[in-house]
């Protein structure tokens, strides 16, 4: 049955950025599909809230209070899992500045989290899956920023473009082990990160709504369903791909 392809019972997932937004929605949905979910984030309070949500819905959750830029801690957290079938590297931060005003320290900070943090999570997951002989799935989080030239989004867009390239390269390298690697590139989604716009958020959402053929912006659950699809057996013949739940704002060839 088609529904059975989305059943993750007996599998273990690790989700970074799980304290809120897309990370939380992904962790909750993977748990609802039957996976035991290891939730990782530096926001301890939010992390606890995600675990409670999962357990209240009958799921199984473990928490890891960590910063993805701390590779040693990330390595220990992944190693603590009793097997690993799914890695969803969602953690990310936002920085806005015009290209001509972007400082080296701004770029370094965003790359440390949005690219190196994802890279390290993927490396640790792939190494674990290869050692265990697991035909697993790794899902990275890109952005529609890789398809557009959003003003002020140099640091974010560059980091996400690097994630896309890493995703494709890793997919080509570990496919022989039966490991799939894919990226999700969301459009504008209502999350605590996009709330950085403050008073201008409603205007930004209105603008993005007008751009979308569907006439709306995304919700975290929209993106979580893309993560679930790529993590599941429904995508067993999919690797090195970029899934774009963006409401039609970007339609690359």
TrEMBL record:
UniProt cross-references to SUPFAM superfamilies, sorted A to Z: NAD(P)-binding Rossmann-fold domains (SSF51735)
Keyword set, alphabetical order: Oxidoreductase
Keyword Amino-acid biosynthesis: no
Keyword Amino-acid biosynthesis annotated: no
Family named by the database record: Belongs to the short-chain dehydrogenases/reductases (SDR) family.
Cross-referenced PANTHER family: DEHYDROGENASES, SHORT CHAIN, OXIDOREDUCTASE UCPA
Name listed for the protein in its UniProt record: Glucose 1-dehydrogenase
Lineage: Bacteria, Bacillati, Actinomycetota, Actinomycetes, Kitasatosporales
């Amino acid at each position: 049955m088609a529904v059975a392809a989305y059943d993750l019972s007996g599998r273990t997932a690790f989700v970074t950025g799980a304290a809120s937004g897309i990370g939380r929605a992904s962790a909750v949905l993977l748990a609802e599909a039957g996976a035991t979910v290891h939730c990782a984030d530096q926001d301890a309070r939010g992390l606890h809230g995600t675990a409670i949500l999962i357990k209240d819905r009958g799921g199984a959750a473990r928490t890891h209070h960590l910063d993805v830029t701390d590779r040693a801690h990330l390595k220990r957290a992944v190693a603590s899992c009793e097997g690993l079938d799914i890695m969803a590297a969602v953690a990310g931060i936002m920085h806005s500045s015009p290209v001509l005003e972007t400082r080296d320290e701004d770029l370094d900070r965003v790359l440390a989290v949005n690219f190196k943090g994802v890279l390290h999570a993927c490396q640790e997951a792939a190494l674990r899956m290869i050692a265990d002989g697991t035909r697993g799935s790794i899902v990275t989080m890109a952005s529609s920023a890789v398809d557009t030239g959003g003003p002020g989004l140099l640091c974010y867009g560059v980091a996400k473009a690097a994630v896309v390239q890493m995703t494709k390269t890793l997919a080509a390298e570990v496919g022989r082990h039966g490991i799939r690697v894919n990226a999700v590139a969301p459009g504008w989604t209502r999350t605590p990160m996009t709330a950085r716009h403050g008073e201008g958020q409603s205007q930004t959402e209105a603008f993005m709504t007008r751009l979308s053929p569907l006439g709306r912006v995304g919700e975290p659950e929209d993106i979580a369903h893309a993560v679930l699809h790529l993590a599941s057996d429904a995508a067993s013949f999919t690797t090195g791909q970029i899934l774009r739940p963006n409401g039609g704002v970007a339609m690359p060839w």
